[in-house]
Amino acid sequence: MKFTLFFIVFFVGLSAVAQQTAVIPSSYVAGNASVAYQDEWLPFDNPAALGRMGSFGVGIIYENRYISPKLATKSINTWLPTKHINIGVGFSQFGYSEYNEMLASLSFGRRFGDRFSLGAEAVYYTMFISSVSRYIGAFTAQVGAQVDLSDNFSLAFKVFNPTFSTVKGEYDKKALPTVLSLGSQYNIRQVVLWLVQFDKEISSPLRWATGFHYYAAEEFIVRIGAYGYNDFRPTIGAGIRLDNWRFDLSADYNSVLGFSLLGSVGYKL
Q1: Contact 109, 49 (CB under 8 A)
Q2: Which of 80, 160, 199, 242 shows its CA 20 to 30 Å from the CA of 179?
């Protein structure tokens, strides 16, 4: 059992190094193509979306990778708009007692006019891999922007770890991935939202992602998409909006390890 768990953790870690650390939660956005997504500010995603939030809110995400609680990522974020700039904080944890990672962030976002927003995020990453090393950590950052080229089409980018930060311990060392993400959002007749994203980690293959949101009703959203960089992973999900509350579920499939499930609850004033 321990060998199986080690193999899965190693596989997840290898996949994460190829693009981003596993402690960064996935999103319920179709295909996980969320860099240009504007309806919500998701934890450790594009901080430019924070500048578009018009009211106080909080969100919780639980991601269960390959139906194993020991490979779960738990995250929470909250934000507060102010007169001049929007402020957000986030926290995320991945792993189990013998190996785990944590992220904490302080984010700032602002909208300039009706079509442009910028954001920046100070991030502290820490990891625990043995009782000898204890916790070791490092500071890094994330920056992003979103621009509306028309009423229906937007472009966005973000960069995670532009400082090339590395976590160093007495016996351990881990270079955090530096990832550049580019994406777009296209509204089709206000009923379908099409999202596209490309990610490039400096030493890994290009990752692609795409997906569609279908607004079947004012309160109900259906999502379908896919992503990959050396494989193909389909995603499916749904969302419900009830007054100030939102509830979202999504799933993706890996041909080797099986399904991963994600659930999210959010509240906005």
Answers
A1: yes
A2: 80
- This prediction has a pTM of 0.87
CA distance readout (Å), 250 to 95, 143, 207, 209: 20, 26, 20, 15
Other beta carbons within 10 angstroms of residue 79's beta carbon come to: 22
Per-residue CA distances from 58 to 29, 89, 104, 212 (Å): 17, 10, 15, 24
Provide the 3-class DSSP secondary structure of residue 47: helix
Q: Which tens digits make up the pLDDT trace of 1-27?
A: 444 444 444 444 444 444 555 668 889
204-218 confidence digits (pLDDT tens): 889 999 999 999 998
What's the pLDDT tens digit per position in 223-252? 999 999 888 999 999 999 999 999 999 999
- Residue ranges per domain, the chain? 2-205
Q: Are 186 and 210 in contact (CB under 8 A)?
A: no
Q: Which of 60, 14, 48, 87 is nearest to 247 (CA)?
A: 60
Could you tell me if 40 and 59 are in contact, meaning their C-beta atoms sit under 8 angstroms apart? Answer: yes
pLDDT of residue 259 exceeding 60: yes
Pick the CATH number of 2-205 from 1.10.260, 2.40.160, 3.40.630, 2.20.25: 2.40.160
CB 140 within 8 A of CB 163: yes
At residue 269, does pLDDT exceed 80?
Answer: yes
